[in-house]
Amino acid sequence: MHDALFADQGRLEDPHLWERARELGLDLKRFDADRRSDAVAERVTNDFRSGVRAGVVTTPVLFAGDRHYAGRIEPAVLDQLGAWTG
Length: 86
Hints:
mainly alpha; 2 strands; 60% helix
């Protein structure tokens, strides 16, 4: 689902979400109930607030060590970080 959502960010309304869920073989009633639940709303709110506190102003953001990289991250940077993180 993650890949499908990021591949087509212009179509995040219910009919499109349901179609993606159907294509993935999800139980549509459970999918809809889960995504509208208080627990999910609370988690989204907490994650959003955490991002704001960390200085996130765009997505994606990659945190590595004491630095963060916002927006599109060049492959060379990812290669360098891969060597850095071992």
